[in-house]
Design brief:
With 208 residues, the chain is α+β, with helices and mostly antiparallel strands. The chain is built from 5 helices and 11 strands; from the N terminus they run αββββββααβββαββα.
Length: 208
Protein backbone atom coordinates (compact mmCIF):
# COMPACT_ATOMS: atom_id res chain seq x y z
CA UNK A 1 0.00 0.00 0.00
CA UNK A 2 1.45 3.41 -0.91
CA UNK A 3 2.49 5.51 2.11
CA UNK A 4 0.01 8.26 1.25
CA UNK A 5 -2.88 5.81 1.46
CA UNK A 6 -1.54 4.26 4.67
CA UNK A 7 -1.46 7.74 6.18
CA UNK A 8 -5.09 8.39 5.24
CA UNK A 9 -6.17 4.96 6.49
CA UNK A 10 -4.45 5.56 9.84
CA UNK A 11 -6.40 8.79 10.25
CA UNK A 12 -9.80 7.75 8.86
CA UNK A 13 -10.19 4.11 9.93
CA UNK A 14 -11.23 4.95 13.52
CA UNK A 15 -13.87 7.29 12.07
CA UNK A 16 -15.36 4.74 9.65
CA UNK A 17 -18.51 2.71 10.12
CA UNK A 18 -16.78 -0.46 8.93
CA UNK A 19 -13.46 -1.61 7.48
CA UNK A 20 -12.99 -4.56 5.14
CA UNK A 21 -9.53 -5.97 4.29
CA UNK A 22 -9.46 -8.22 1.22
CA UNK A 23 -6.88 -11.00 0.66
CA UNK A 24 -5.44 -9.03 -2.25
CA UNK A 25 -4.65 -6.02 -0.10
CA UNK A 26 -7.58 -3.76 -0.96
CA UNK A 27 -8.84 -1.94 2.14
CA UNK A 28 -12.41 -0.61 2.05
CA UNK A 29 -13.94 1.89 4.45
CA UNK A 30 -17.74 2.02 4.47
CA UNK A 31 -19.66 4.80 6.17
CA UNK A 32 -22.90 5.35 4.23
CA UNK A 33 -24.28 7.79 6.82
CA UNK A 34 -21.63 10.34 5.80
CA UNK A 35 -20.60 11.99 2.54
CA UNK A 36 -16.89 12.06 3.38
CA UNK A 37 -15.14 10.46 0.39
CA UNK A 38 -12.27 9.05 2.44
CA UNK A 39 -14.78 7.20 4.65
CA UNK A 40 -16.54 5.60 1.68
CA UNK A 41 -13.83 4.28 -0.61
CA UNK A 42 -11.70 1.25 -1.45
CA UNK A 43 -7.98 1.94 -1.01
CA UNK A 44 -6.00 0.19 -3.74
CA UNK A 45 -2.49 -1.22 -3.25
CA UNK A 46 0.31 0.14 -5.42
CA UNK A 47 -0.19 -0.85 -9.04
CA UNK A 48 -3.68 -2.28 -8.37
CA UNK A 49 -6.03 -1.61 -11.30
CA UNK A 50 -8.63 -4.41 -11.02
CA UNK A 51 -11.95 -3.89 -9.28
CA UNK A 52 -12.57 -7.58 -8.51
CA UNK A 53 -12.08 -7.14 -4.77
CA UNK A 54 -13.65 -3.69 -4.49
CA UNK A 55 -16.91 -3.52 -2.55
CA UNK A 56 -17.35 0.24 -2.91
CA UNK A 57 -18.42 2.36 -5.90
CA UNK A 58 -15.49 4.68 -5.15
CA UNK A 59 -11.79 3.85 -5.17
CA UNK A 60 -8.78 5.82 -4.00
CA UNK A 61 -5.28 5.23 -5.33
CA UNK A 62 -2.07 6.95 -6.32
CA UNK A 63 -2.90 6.29 -10.00
CA UNK A 64 -4.56 9.23 -11.77
CA UNK A 65 -7.74 8.14 -13.60
CA UNK A 66 -8.95 9.73 -16.82
CA UNK A 67 -11.82 11.38 -14.93
CA UNK A 68 -11.75 11.50 -11.14
CA UNK A 69 -14.01 12.73 -8.37
CA UNK A 70 -11.23 14.51 -6.47
CA UNK A 71 -7.46 14.79 -6.19
CA UNK A 72 -5.59 15.39 -2.94
CA UNK A 73 -2.09 16.42 -2.00
CA UNK A 74 -0.74 15.47 1.42
CA UNK A 75 1.60 18.03 2.90
CA UNK A 76 3.50 18.87 6.07
CA UNK A 77 2.63 22.28 7.48
CA UNK A 78 5.57 24.39 8.60
CA UNK A 79 4.41 27.03 11.08
CA UNK A 80 6.00 30.47 11.01
CA UNK A 81 6.37 33.18 13.60
CA UNK A 82 4.17 35.61 11.68
CA UNK A 83 1.07 33.52 12.15
CA UNK A 84 -2.31 35.14 11.70
CA UNK A 85 -4.40 35.53 14.87
CA UNK A 86 -7.66 36.24 13.06
CA UNK A 87 -9.81 34.24 12.74
CA UNK A 88 -9.38 32.94 16.28
CA UNK A 89 -9.16 29.14 16.61
CA UNK A 90 -10.42 27.31 19.69
CA UNK A 91 -10.28 23.72 20.83
CA UNK A 92 -13.90 22.88 21.61
CA UNK A 93 -15.72 20.09 23.42
CA UNK A 94 -17.88 17.42 21.81
CA UNK A 95 -20.92 19.53 22.76
CA UNK A 96 -20.00 21.68 19.75
CA UNK A 97 -20.27 18.78 17.29
CA UNK A 98 -23.49 20.04 15.62
CA UNK A 99 -21.88 23.42 14.92
CA UNK A 100 -18.60 21.80 13.87
CA UNK A 101 -20.44 19.53 11.42
CA UNK A 102 -22.49 22.44 10.11
CA UNK A 103 -19.32 24.36 9.24
CA UNK A 104 -17.66 21.30 7.75
CA UNK A 105 -20.68 20.46 5.58
CA UNK A 106 -21.09 24.07 4.42
CA UNK A 107 -17.40 24.36 3.59
CA UNK A 108 -17.69 21.43 1.20
CA UNK A 109 -20.94 22.63 -0.35
CA UNK A 110 -23.15 19.92 1.20
CA UNK A 111 -25.16 21.64 3.98
CA UNK A 112 -27.83 18.93 3.92
CA UNK A 113 -25.37 16.42 5.37
CA UNK A 114 -24.66 18.36 8.57
CA UNK A 115 -27.19 16.54 10.77
CA UNK A 116 -26.09 13.11 9.51
CA UNK A 117 -22.44 13.97 10.11
CA UNK A 118 -23.24 15.10 13.65
CA UNK A 119 -25.01 11.82 14.45
CA UNK A 120 -22.17 9.75 13.03
CA UNK A 121 -19.30 11.63 14.65
CA UNK A 122 -21.04 11.76 18.00
CA UNK A 123 -21.02 7.96 17.94
CA UNK A 124 -17.56 7.21 16.57
CA UNK A 125 -15.71 9.93 18.47
CA UNK A 126 -17.06 8.85 21.86
CA UNK A 127 -14.33 6.20 22.39
CA UNK A 128 -11.73 8.11 20.34
CA UNK A 129 -10.53 10.64 22.89
CA UNK A 130 -7.34 11.51 20.99
CA UNK A 131 -9.27 13.35 18.25
CA UNK A 132 -9.64 17.09 18.94
CA UNK A 133 -12.29 19.39 17.48
CA UNK A 134 -11.12 22.81 16.30
CA UNK A 135 -13.37 25.73 15.37
CA UNK A 136 -12.22 29.01 13.83
CA UNK A 137 -14.21 32.15 14.63
CA UNK A 138 -14.44 35.58 13.05
CA UNK A 139 -16.52 38.18 14.89
CA UNK A 140 -18.23 35.43 16.87
CA UNK A 141 -19.23 33.34 13.84
CA UNK A 142 -17.69 29.94 13.13
CA UNK A 143 -15.87 30.04 9.79
CA UNK A 144 -13.63 26.96 9.93
CA UNK A 145 -13.57 23.43 11.35
CA UNK A 146 -10.86 20.82 11.70
CA UNK A 147 -10.35 17.42 13.33
CA UNK A 148 -6.85 16.99 14.77
CA UNK A 149 -5.26 13.82 16.10
CA UNK A 150 -1.75 12.74 17.14
CA UNK A 151 0.03 10.41 14.73
CA UNK A 152 3.19 8.46 15.50
CA UNK A 153 5.69 9.35 18.20
CA UNK A 154 5.82 13.09 17.49
CA UNK A 155 3.52 13.73 14.53
CA UNK A 156 -0.08 14.80 14.12
CA UNK A 157 -2.66 15.09 11.35
CA UNK A 158 -5.51 17.33 10.22
CA UNK A 159 -6.92 15.55 7.17
CA UNK A 160 -10.60 16.39 7.82
CA UNK A 161 -11.14 20.13 7.76
CA UNK A 162 -12.88 22.93 5.90
CA UNK A 163 -13.26 26.70 5.93
CA UNK A 164 -16.00 29.17 5.01
CA UNK A 165 -13.45 31.99 5.03
CA UNK A 166 -10.12 31.31 3.32
CA UNK A 167 -8.42 33.42 5.98
CA UNK A 168 -9.22 30.64 8.49
CA UNK A 169 -6.95 28.11 6.78
CA UNK A 170 -3.62 29.22 8.24
CA UNK A 171 -4.94 29.82 11.78
CA UNK A 172 -6.41 26.29 11.76
CA UNK A 173 -3.09 24.78 10.69
CA UNK A 174 -1.19 26.86 13.25
CA UNK A 175 -3.57 25.65 15.95
CA UNK A 176 -2.95 22.06 14.84
CA UNK A 177 0.80 22.66 15.03
CA UNK A 178 0.52 23.96 18.61
CA UNK A 179 -1.32 20.80 19.69
CA UNK A 180 1.44 18.43 18.57
CA UNK A 181 5.16 18.08 19.15
CA UNK A 182 5.93 18.43 15.47
CA UNK A 183 4.51 20.00 12.29
CA UNK A 184 1.15 18.46 11.36
CA UNK A 185 0.32 16.60 8.19
CA UNK A 186 -2.75 17.74 6.27
CA UNK A 187 -4.45 17.13 2.94
CA UNK A 188 -5.96 19.60 0.51
CA UNK A 189 -7.96 19.35 -2.69
CA UNK A 190 -5.83 20.24 -5.71
CA UNK A 191 -6.11 20.11 -9.53
CA UNK A 192 -5.52 16.57 -10.88
CA UNK A 193 -2.10 17.41 -12.29
CA UNK A 194 -0.91 18.38 -8.77
CA UNK A 195 -2.46 15.40 -6.98
CA UNK A 196 -0.85 12.53 -5.11
CA UNK A 197 -4.05 10.68 -4.18
CA UNK A 198 -7.04 10.28 -6.49
CA UNK A 199 -10.69 9.35 -5.89
CA UNK A 200 -12.63 7.91 -8.81
CA UNK A 201 -15.64 5.80 -9.65
CA UNK A 202 -14.74 2.11 -10.00
CA UNK A 203 -15.38 1.95 -13.76
CA UNK A 204 -13.31 5.09 -14.39
CA UNK A 205 -10.46 3.89 -12.20
CA UNK A 206 -10.14 0.55 -13.97
CA UNK A 207 -10.29 1.80 -17.55
CA UNK A 208 -7.05 1.35 -19.47
Amino acid sequence: MPPELLELLDYFTPLAGARHDSPGGVVTLLTPETNVLALNAAYLPAGERAAAEVCSPLVVSTHAPAQGEAALRLETFSPDEARESVPLVEQVSRLYLPEWCRVLALSHGTPGWAAWLALHFARVLEPQRDYVLLLAYREGAAVGAGLWRPSGPTGSALHLWGVLDTAARLPLLHAAARLGDGPPRYSCVVPPEEGQVFFAQVLEATQE
